[in-house]
## 1
Amino acid sequence: MSNENFVFLTAEVPGVFAFDRGKNVVKSSIFPRDAEEIQGKLDDLKKGKVVEELEAVLGDLDAENIITEFPLEIEGFNVEVKDETSARKHLRENLRELSKESGFVDNDEQFNEIIRDLQVLKTRDGIKSSVKKDKVMAQAVSALQDLRRVSNELSERLREWYGLYYPELKIEENESYAELVADLESRREFEDFEGSMGIDLDKVDIEAMRSFARQVSGIYKQIDELKGYLEEVMEDVTPNLTFLIGSEMAAQLVSLAGSLKKLARMPSSKIQLLGAEKALFRHLKGGGKPPKHGVIFNHPYIQQTPEGKRGKAARAIASKLMMAARTDHYTGKFKGKEYKEELEEELEEIRNG
Amino acid sequence: MDEIFENVFELKGDLYTVNLDPGEKVYGEELIKRDGVEYRRWDPNRSKLSAALRRGLDKFPLKEGTKVLYLGAAQGTTPSHVSDIIGRKGIVYLVEFSERAMRDLLELCERRGNMVPILADARKPEEYNWVEKVDLLYQDVAQPDQIKILRRNAKKFLREDGWIMIAVKARAIDVSKEPKEIYEEIKPGLEKDFDIFDFLELDPYEGDHGFILARKR
C-alpha cells in the first residue's frame, strides 16, 4: 500500500473529510448548516449508507484504499473498517478550525450556534427516551414491595429461630435485629446473658442462624438501595407527581395505571381509587361501603386528616395528582411547587371546614 | 455603571452583566436599562460566582470570547451570567446529569447561542470527549469526590495555563468540617497540577461554601 493511494475517510459535524497519512485534508464536502440534517446524515453514515457528501468526496478521489470508521461498502475501493482512526481523532480535536477552514461556518459565532443546535436536539431526544422508563419504574416499585413482604416474613422466622437460643433479645426493628444476630458470635457477648432462658446451642447451630441473619440483613440493604434508585429516576420520569407524593407512591400509581400515558388520561375519580380495586368491586357487588381512597390512603396528607373528612381530602389530592400526571406526560415542565402549595391550602380548608 | 472586570458591572453595590437575551429574565432577577443597554442584576444569594466577586475575588479570568466547560450547570442561573460575559464569540459547555434540571436548562440554551447543553455525568468525561479544549473549567457539583472529577476533566479538556473555578460545599465532602478545613485538606492534591490564586468563604451569601480560583501549570 503506497502513500498515494491510501486515505482516511471520516465525518463529523462540518462534513465528510478525506485525510492523508500526514493528516492533511485531501478532500472534503461540507454538510448544510442545519442540525437536524447533520444529525440524520451522521446517523446514515454510521449505518453504512452513502450520503451525497460522501459521494462528492469519493467522486474523483485519487486513491484505491480507504480506512474509515463507517461500515461502508463502496465499489472500486478497498475499504478497511476501524473503530477509531487517528484521522477521526484529529478531526474531532480540530473541529472548530476545520469547520472554519472548510467553509462550513464563517466565524466562531456560527460554529457555537450549530454546536448548540446539535446538542439541544440530542439532549431533547435523550430526555424523551427516558420517559419510557415508566415501565421500568413500575417493575422496580413492585420489586420493592416484594422485598418488603419477604423481609418481614424472614424476619419473623429469624426471631422465632434465634428466640430459642436467646429469647431475651428485644429489638423492635427487624433490620437492627438481623444485623445484630449476624454480628454476634454468641449470646455471651451480651452483658445480661447469664440468666437467659434460651437453650444452649452448638457453634454450628449458631452459625446457621447467623448466616441466615446475614441474608436477611442483605435484603434490608437492597431495599434501601432500590429506594434510592427509585427516587433518583422518578424525579426525572415524573417530576411533578414525585414532588407531590414522593417517588414510591408516584411509581405505584404509574404501575397500577399501566404507564404514565395511561395515568395521564385517567379522570381524577379513577386515580383516587387506584389500588382500591378490591374494595370497589366488593362495593359494586353490593357487599360493602364504597372505598374513598386507594394507594393515596397511606399518604400523610390523608393520614393527617380526620376520619370524617378523608373522602373530601382524597378527592382534592386526586385532582391535583391528575394535573401533575398530565403535566409530566404532556409537557415535562415542572409545576410541582405550585401544585403542592395549592393542594396544601385546599387541605387546610377541608380540615378546618 | 462601573466596569469592575471585563463585562462585569457594578452599580450602587450591586453586580450586573449585559443581557445577551434582551427582555428576558432567567431566574426572576431585576433588569435595568442604562444608555440603551439592558443589564441583568447578578444576585450573590443565587449565584456562587457572584458571591465570590462580592467577597473580593481578586482575579477574574472570564472575558469576551472565553471558552468554558461548566460542570454542574443545574438550572443555569450562574451559566446565564457566564454566557452574558463571554458573549457570542465565547462558548460555555454545560454538563448536567439531572434530567429535571436539564429541562429548564434546555429552554435557556435555545435562547442563547453560546450555551451548549450536555446531558451527562461529569464523572464520565469520555461521554463528551468531542468537547474542544477550553480556557476555563468551572465546577459546582457538591459531590464528595468532586476534586477527582475536576482533575479528570481538567486533564482532558483544560488547555495549558487554563483556569479553574471551584465551588466547594464543605458538608458534601465531610459533614463535620468547615469550608476552611476542607480547603486545607484538598489543597495539597490541587497544588500538584494547579497554582492556587485565591480561596474565599462565601458566607453570608452561601453558607458552608468555599470558592477556589487556580491555574493549570
Note: Chain A has a mean pLDDT of 89.
## 2
Amino acid sequence: MTEQPILRVRGVSKSYGRRIGCADVDLDVYAGEVVAVVGESGSGKTTLLNCLGGNLEPDAGSIAYRFTGDDWQEFLTLSESRRRLLMRTELGFVRQNPRDGLRLRVTAGANVGERLMAVGARHYGRIREAAVEWLERVEIDAGRIDDFPLAFSGGMQQRLQIARNLVSGPKLVYMDEPTGGLDVSVQARLLDLLRRLADDLGLAAVIVTHDLGVARLLAERMMVMRGGRVVESGLTDQLLDDPQHPYTQLLAASVLTP
Amino acid sequence: MTNPAERVTNPAERVTNPGYNYAYLDEQTKRMVRRALLKAVAVPGYQVPFASREMPLPYGWGTGGIQVTASVIGPDDTLKVIDQGADDTTNAVSIRQFFARVAGVRTTERTAEATLIQTRHRVPETPLREGQILVYQVPLPEPLRKLEPRETETRRMHALSEYGLMSVKLYEDVTRHGRIATSYDYPVMVEERYVMAPSPTPKFDNPKMHRSPALQLFGAGREKRIYAVPPYTRVRSLDFDDYPFEVQEFDTPCALCGSSGVYLDEIITDDQGGKMFVCSDTDFCAQRVAAAGDSQGARDPQGAGGLQ
Amino acid sequence: MNAPALVLEGLSKSFTLHERGGVELRVLDDVSLEVRPGECVVLQGPSGMGKSTLLRLAYGNYKARTGRILVRDGDELVDVASAPPRRVLALRRGTLGYVSQFLRVIPRTSTLEIVAHAARRAGFDAPRAEARARAALSHLALPERLWELPPATFSGGEQQRVNIARTFAADYPILLLDEPTASLDAANAARVLDLVRGARDRGAAILAIFHDRDAAVAVADRFFDLSAARQAV
C-alpha cells in the first residue's frame, strides 16, 4: 500500500534535566484513525503529547505533518506564528481538564466561534450558525449557546471543548485523557461521540489515556509507554489480548475488564 | 477665567523654579521617555514598556500622560489640557497649572492655539492640524487584558498579530446586547498591524484618530506603557460585516451652541429631573456660541453663561 | 480447484508469562491448513487444543511465534503474521470477518448502527449498509423493538446474534467463526447455520469451531483435527 501518514514522528526526545520525559519516540498517524498512547503516570505519554502539540519543545527529533496541499512540514522548524496558526486550524488539542481548554469568561458560542474569528471570520451571523451546528453535533442544546461554560456539567464542558477544537475542521486532534475525571456513564457518551466524529469527519486523533478500556473502544492502534520509552506498539486488541512485553502484560493483567 | 499662562510674562521667569528641573522630570528620565516615544512612533500601535516614575499625583490622574507631556514640552509650546472634553475641571486645571509652573509654558483652552494637548477621554471637536501633539492619559493600555489575563500571552498575541480574541469580545457584545455595545475604549486596528486601546475615549472619537494630521501619543503611568499613532496613520475600528462600527448619534443638537454631529454630555439642571445635552468639548462650544453672537446675536446667552 | 483464500503455514504459538517467571505455554506447533473459497472447514479437537487460539491468530488478535498466515485480498496474499498493523486493519474491514463469543462495542450505540457500521466499513454505502443490517437482524429473529437500543442490556443469546449479524452484514470473503451458536437455542442456532451455509454457497472461505457436533456436521465440508495435527509433528 502506498498510503501516506499525515503525521510522522521520529526520535522525539524530551528531558527535564536528568529525568527523561520521553525518549526516541517514533509514531505514524494516518488520516481517519485513532491511535492510543497508554501507560501509567510518569510514563511520558503526556510529555510526548505536549511535544506533538507544540506545548513543549523537544530536545531532539522530528515531527512532520502532511496537510492540505500534500506538502510535508517540519513542525519543529516552523515559525511560531505558523505553528500557532496550525494549532488553530488543522490541528486541535483537547485537554484533560476542560477548564484549561475553554475560555470560562465568554459564552459557549464564543468559545466555539473563536477559532473561526482567529482566522478572519467577520460575519457574526455566520459565526453563530457554525456555533449552533457544532453544539448540536456534540449534543449540547443549541439553546445554551449564550451560557457560560461554568454553568455546564463536566461532561458538557468536555464536549464544548471538543466542539471548540473541531469547528475549524482539523485533520488531527490530540487528546489528553479526554474522559478522565468524568463519570462512567458520561464517559460512555463521550466515547461514542468521539468515535462517531472520527468516523464521520475522517478525523485522526492521538489519545493519551491510562484507561485501557478507552483505548480498546476508540483506538485500533496503540502504543505502550514506560519510563519515557515506547515498549510495545501495534494493534490495540493484540496488545491487550496477547501482550508480548512484560510491562504490557502487567498493564493488561491489571485491568478489571479490559 | 484666568489663564495662568498670562501671569508668566517674562520668559526668564519660566526657568526659575528652584528645586525642580525644567518640566519637573530630570533630563535622564525625559530621555528615557523620549526613547520609548520614538520607538512607539516607529511602530504605530505597539505598546512600548517604559520606566514610569512616581509623579506628584495619584495613579489614575494622568501620571502617564504627564510624563509624556513633560518629555516633549518646550518653552515655545502652548499647552491645552482637557478632561472629559472640558478645560475647567479640577484635573485639567491642576495639570495646566502644573506645567505653567514647572515648564513655564503658555497655556490655552483653545484647541486651535495649542501645540500640545493633553487629554483624558476626548479628542477635540475642532479638527487637529499638522504640528500638534495630542497626549492621551491611558489607564488600561492592553486591549486584550479582560479576556487574557496573562501578560506573556497577550504580548505573544500582539507579536503574532493574533487578534481572534478581540473579535470574541465583540461577539460577546453582540450576543449580550444585540449590537456592539462597547461605547468607549473601543478597540482599533492601527495600520493593519497592532490592535490598540484608545482608552478611555468614547468610540465617537475613533474616526478622528484615523489619518489625523496630528501626532497622537498615549501614556499609561501605572501600567508603564507608551504607544503612539503618528500623523496620517490608518486607524480602523474593529467590527463585524453584519454589525458594522458606528458612532453614537444624538437626537438633539447641543442646547448651548446648537451643534449637531458632536459628542454631547447630559447635564442635570435641577432637582426635578430637568436635564439638557450640551457639547462635551467646552472650547468648541464656547467658540460656536461666540461666533453665533458675533454674527446674529446670542441665542441663548443665559444657558451659555450658565455653563461658563 | 480455485486458489485457497486462507493459508496457514507452519503456524506455532506459545505464550510467555513474564509475571510467572517467564514460563512458556506452547499452544500450537507447526500447524498447516488451507481453506478455499466456498469451503467450510471445521476445527476439531478437545478443549485446550488451541482451536480458538488458531482463529485469533488468523485474525491477528494473537501474535504468531513462527509461521505464516496468508490471507487472500483480491490479487494479493497478505501475511497477517508479519503485515504492518494497518494492513491487518484493512483486511479486517473488508476481507476477514471474525465472530467471537463476546460482543465488544461502544456503549450507547444502537444495535442497528453497530451492525450497519460494520457493513459501511466493508464498503457498502449507507443505505445499502442499513438494508443489509436490517436483513441480518431480521434473519436472526432479533425483535425489531431492540434494534434502536444499545445491546449492553441484552441477554447473552441476543448479544451473540448482534455479533453474528454484524459479521454477516459485512459480507466478508473469509469468515472465522468461534462457536457462533454457543449461547443460542435450537431455532436460533439453525438460523445461524443457515447464514453460514448461505455465505459458503456465495463463495466465502469459512474456518469455524462448533461446540456441538450436529451443528458442525450440518455445515462442514471438511474437518481439521488439531490434536491429530499436533501428533503429526
Note: Chain B touches chain A at residues 146-147, 156, 160-165, 167-168, 171-172, 174-176, 239-243 (CB under 8 Å).
## 3
Amino acid sequence: MAGTPPRTLFDKVWDSHVVETLPDGTCLLYIDRHLVHEVTSPQAFEGLRMAGRKVRRPDATLAVVDHNIATSSDRAAGIAEPESRLQVETLEQNVAAFGVPYFPILDARQGIVHIIGPEQGISLPATTIVCGDSHTSTHGALGALAFGIGTSEVEHVLATQTLLQKPAKNMLVRVDGKLPLGCTAKDIVLAIIGTIGTAGGTGHVIEYAGEAIRALDMAGRMTVCNMSIEAGARAGMIAPDETTFAYVRGKPYAPKGEALERAIAYWRTLPSDEGAHYDKTVIIDAAAIAPMVTWGTNPEAVLPITATVPDPAAEPDVEKRARMQRMLDYMALTPGQKLSDVPIDVVFIGSCTNGRIEDIRAAAKVAQGRHVADGVRALVVPGSGIVKQQAEAEGLDRILLDAGFEWREAGCSMCLGMNPDKLTPGQRCASTSNRNFEGRQGPGGRTHLLSPAMAAAAAVSGHLADVREFA
Amino acid sequence: MQPFTTLTGIAAPLPLANVDTDKIIPARFLKTIKRTGLGVHLFDTLRYDETGAERPEFVLNREPYRHAEILIAHENFGCGSSREHAPWALLDFGIRCVIAPDFADIFHGNCFKNGILPIRLPREICDALIEDARLGGNARITVDLQRQVVVRPSGEEIPFQIDDFRRHSLLEGLDDIGQTLQHAPSIDAYEQRQTADHSWVPAIV
C-alpha cells in the first residue's frame, strides 16, 4: 500500500490484533491463544468465580499440568506432595467448571506447556499467544507474538480474551554467517545474552534474523526464542519461512487443506519490510561462537567452554567486581580454573528450552557407546509424552539407558525446583534449562547452563567438557 | 484493588542489581492457590539461613525495616519468571512501592495489578534515596502519586513518570477487567472481523 511506512514482523502482528487504542496509547490487544498451567492459574479462576464471570473463549484456551508433577515412572499413582496435588486438582476442577480443553497428566499429549503448543499446532504464525509463564517467548519461533503474563493478566484474558498493553520497542538481533561445528541454537542464544546482558532486551521484542537463524530448524528457533526473557525481552520472534510452514503442516490443531494454503499466503506477508525501523540492532558473527557454558548465577555470566573462570580482580568497576565475587562464592569456583575442569554431580537434559526430540537426539548421539561417569546422576526428561514416544520409537531411550542416563516422564522437572526433581545444597548441575539463578534448581544448588550435547558430554566426562572432542 | 494515592513510610535499602523473582519468592513456595500469606517467604534465602533462622544482617530482619512499606533497589529488579507471587509476597509483607533504576517488564506490569507502585528513577537518585533509607525510622519517605513526586526526608521533591492509564487505575483502585469489559462491543466487533479475515485460526476443541 502506498504511503504505509515499512513495518517489522512485530509491528504487523501487533497491528492486526489491536482492538482499540486508549487515549494514552495503551492498546486493547486481542489474544488468539491462551495456554494455562497449574501454578499461575488458580487465583485467576478464583477471581472469575468471585466476579461471576465466564471464560470468554474456552475454544482458544488449553490447559495442562507441567510444573508440579513428578517425572518418575510411578506417577499414575498420583502426586505425593499435598500442596502440589492440591494445585493440580484445583486446575482439574477449574477446567471442568469453566469448560476449558485440558490434557490430563496421563494423556500422551501432556507435557511442558511451551513444548506442546507448537507440537499440537496450537501455536501458529501471526497469532498472539500468552501464558502465565515467562518462557512463553518460545512460541515466537513460529512468527507469533508470544509473551508471559502474570496471574491477574491470566484472569483478564480468561474473562475478556484481550490484554491492556503498550507496544514494545523493536530490537533486531542478526546472527550472520554459519555456526561452527559442535555449536547449537543454545550456544547462539547464550552468546547473545552474554553480549547484550540480562536487561539488554527490556522493553523490546527481539526479532532474530540472519543466516545462522534461518539455518536453524524449528526446535533450534524455539530454543533461541525461549531465552529471550533471559535477555529481558518479553518476546522473541522469527519471521516464518518454508521451515516454519513445513513444521506446521499436519500438526493436529493446525489449519488443513485450503485453510492452510490461505494461512500460508498470509504468513508470507509477515517478514519485516525493507527499511523497517528498529530501536536497537545487534549483529553477532556466528563463526565466532563456541560451545558456551555459564559460570555465574545469571545467564549473562557465560563463556566458551575453552575459557577459564574470570577473575573479579581484573574487573575495574567496583560494583561489578562485587557481583562477580558473590557469584563465584555461590558457585564455589576459583578464578583462573579451567571451565572444562569443573566437576559436576548432576546432569539435567530437558525443559522448555531443550526438551524437544532434536535435543534428545543430540544428547543420545554423544551418549552412544559411552557411559555416565561414576558418581554422576544424569536425567533425561522429554518435554512431552509425544516427544517421549518419538524418542522410544527411534530407540533413543535404549541408547541413553544403556549409557546410564535416567529416562523419565514429561514435565518441567529439574528446571525450577518445584517438583521432586531438585538439587540438594551444594550439588553442581550441568543443565540444559534456562536459568542459573541462586537456588533455581533447589536451595543451594549450582547450575551451569549449556546445550544438550554439551550436557551429555559433561555426563560421560564427570566434568564440564568440550563437545567438539566427542565428534 | 486497594487504591494508591499517597504513602509515607519507612523505606528499606536493598542495593542489589538483578534481583530475580526466584530470589523474591523461590518456586517451592508457588504451590499455593491463594494470593495471600506469601510475605513470610519474601526473599526467603536472603532472609533465613538453612535452619530457617533469620539472618540478622538482612535488612528486612532489622528494625525499623521490618515495617518497611517502600523498597529501594538497583537495576533490573524483578527479572526472571512471570510469577505474580513476587508482588503478592511484597504486598503481603507490607511493601506498596518499589523504587529502582529499572524493572523487568513482566514484574513491572504485575505490580500495578496489585496496587503496588513501581517507580523508575535514575541510579544516582536511587542511591541518594538508599542513603536516606539508611537513616532509619525517622527518615520517612513520601510517595505522592497524585502529584507524581517522591519526597525525601529533607523535603526535596523528585518527580517521576508513569503512564496515565496506570496512574488513573492505581489512584482509583480500578480493576482492569471491569474497565476492559466496558469495551466489550469493540471486542465483539474484532472477533467478527477476525472470523471473516483469519478464519484459518481453528478452534481448540
Note: Residues 82-98 of chain A form the longest helix (17 residues).
